[in-house]
Design goal:
With 578 residues, the chain is mainly α. It contains 22 helices and no strands.
């Protein structure tokens, strides 16, 4: 095998991988938002979660993309760990569609002859002014490159008839019984770790099998190894996430390790099941074929290719059917394996008091929603802490870390508001009393104000970022004034949470504490703004720096407005109840 042939093979592999990524990216852009909505909505029980994972992965043709999406949802607190495990199980079944597409279109139908003409349509679509058409163009180009790469890979693999020494070498490694199974399993795992794509490894395995390089049972061992190797993508994605995200990724690893374990224990019977299934399709049993002549026997080659795809499908389907009943056990296992660090910050997880699924009586449901609103307020207050730290942070990297946290808290506020509102919509559709209806209307207003508080925290980070871009900085006196303003807002937060809790407990008597907190913030805003304007006019203070300072002071004052609005809603609803 010459140097040029080796580089041609590697280049073809690169084309296949690039095409796979491009196709998956295009598919996700075409249907991404709808799929994300489906992912967050259709996970109320394990079976729905599995079907959701299966459906999304079948559409976007990437279990890694689905799993990474799941990990990000868990990281943001929008999916519970048990729900994520179910989706990941479904994603494993969905990814088997790729193997069937490659087996049929890449080997039996050889769609590569249409790939170049399809590139023309992909180019035309990609130059459209409409983003949806450009995404479709990206999908078509990716699809074409995938099968062109596959075709080049097949052509670059040496013919065993011309290189019998390679056949003898492979035979030597295939004649060690169960040891050979473990060897090829490890090879499939390592290859998937390197390529970061189980679909690419599956394609390589199909080529090796169709060309007669390896026997069917060793190809099956490689596929089992690929199921272990593919879990690394989710673990990489979770490495920068919170503890729950790491647990979700670890559940993927546990799921596949358990599956590979039983598949190895029952390796021969499992291959027999695959063989019988293929025989029902009218093809010979692939496990009974001599791999040295598979490439020269079309019917045997088809049976081998379809047999490998069938093994992939049966493995993931059986594994899901077995383990779907033990999702809670897997959840406990990953919690035990990945413990919450003792010094870890309070992380924002999924809603604590309400979740998808059947709604209790409206009265009980509104109590749960109010608990969640208090929790929402506490989460919002945590974001203020990051804003306060960002005011005086001079280190660029540390500031960026704080800014990203404020952006994350703003996104989380949006999602929590949406989920509580969705829950309240469901409650409103039931038979409810006039009092409960009043409370629900009040809750809608409160969650809107709490979401606005998250917007303000993110707005402060933007102001500070602009200040840094223009290389301006605050002196010690300015930072001290901002810290004092921030402390006044922190006090208003504490008052708001106190009033929310009192209203929930039925002990709210008046909101004078909220008016006092609001008055303190307004007076401080007026004093700081007037003093700064005076310094600009009389002491030559830098105008641009002062603008950033006054903007932050104004943003803090807005936060005070949002909080007094919450207390006023409570006053109208829980003190002056009709």
């Amino acid at each position: 095998m010459g140097i040029l042939q080796i580089f041609t093979l590697l280049g073809a592999l690169g084309m296949f991988l690039y095409g796979m990524n491009l196709m998956s990216s295009g598919l996700q852009k075409v249907a991404g938002d709808k799929l994300r909505g489906l992912l967050s909505a259709m996970t109320s029980n394990p079976f729905k979660a599995v079907l959701t994972g299966l459906g999304i992965t079948t559409v976007i043709q990437s279990s890694s993309a689905t799993t990474v999406m799941v990990v990000s949802f868990v990281n943001a607190g929008l999916l519970a760990l048990s729900q994520a495990i179910g989706v990941i199980m479904g994603a494993n079944i969905g990814t088997t569609v790729t193997a069937w597409l490659v087996s049929w279109l890449g080997f039996k139908a050889d769609i590569s002859i249409l790939a170049v003409p399809m590139m023309l349509f992909g180019f035309l679509f990609s130059n459209s002014k409409k983003s949806q058409r450009r995404n479709i163009g990206e999908l078509i180009v990716g699809f074409s490159l995938l099968f062109l790469g596959l075709s080049f890979m097949k052509e670059s693999v040496p013919d065993l008839g011309e290189t019998p020494q390679i056949l003898d070498f492979v035979k030597a490694w295939s004649n060690h019984g169960f040891g050979s199974v473990l060897l090829f399993l490890a090879f499939g795992t390592v290859l998937t770790l390197i390529l970061q794509s189980s679909s690419a490894t599956m394609a390589i395995t199909l080529i090796m099998l169709s060309m007669g390089w390896i026997p069917f049972d060793m190809a099956c061992a490689m596929v089992l190894g690929e199921n272990i190797g593919t879990t690394i993508t989710a673990n990489i994605a979770a490495s920068i996430g919170n503890t729950q995200a790491k647990r979700a990724a670890m559940s993927h690893t546990i799921f596949n390790l358990i599956g590979v374990t039983w598949a190895l224990i029952f390796f021969k019977p499992f291959l027999s099941l695959v063989g019988m299934t293929i025989e029902l399709m009218g093809l010979p049993n692939p496990s009974a074929q001599d791999f040295a002549v598979v490439a020269s026997a079309p019917n045997s080659s088809t049976a081998a290719l379809y047999g490998l795809s069938m093994l992939h499908t049966l493995f993931n389907t059986i594994n899901t059917f077995l383990l779907i009943w033990f999702i809670k056990v897997i959840e406990k296992a990953v919690i035990w394996i990945i413990k919450t660090p003792a010094n870890q910050e309070n992380e924002v997880f999924r809603l604590k008091y309400i979740s998808a699924g059947p709604i209790a009586t409206p009265e009980l449901a509104t109590e749960q929603a109010f608990d969640e609103i208090i929790h929402f307020a506490q989460i919002s207050k945590n974001g203020l802490g990051y804003a306060k730290s960002a005011l005086s942070e001079s280190d660029v990297d540390k500031f960026e870390e704080l800014r990203n946290k404020l952006i994350k808290y703003e996104e989380i506020s949006d999602r929590i508001e949406f989920e509580i509102a969705t829950f309240l919509n469901a409650v409103s559709s039931e038979e409810i009393s006039k009092a409960t209806s009043m409370k629900i209307k009040a809750m809608y207003k409160i969650i809107g104000e709490l979401e606005s508080l998250g917007d303000s925290g993110e707005a402060i980070s933007r102001i500070l970022s602009r200040r840094n871009i223009h290389k301006k900085s605050f002196d010690e006196a300015t930072i001290k004034n901002l810290n004092n303003m921030c402390e006044a807002v922190e006090n208003a937060y504490a008052v708001m949470i106190e009033n929310l809790t009192a209203a929930h407990n039925g002990t709210l008597a008046d909101i004078s504490n909220a008016y006092n907190a609001e008055e303190r913030i307004n007076n401080m805003r007026n004093y700081l703004r007037d003093s700064e304007i005076d310094d600009i006019e009389n002491n030559g203070k830098n105008y641009h720096t002062s603008v950033y300072y006054i903007d932050i002071v104004s943003e803090f004052e807005k936060m005070g407005d949002f909080m007094i609005n919450v207390s006023q809603v409570l006053e109208r609803t829980y003190i002056h109840e009709p």
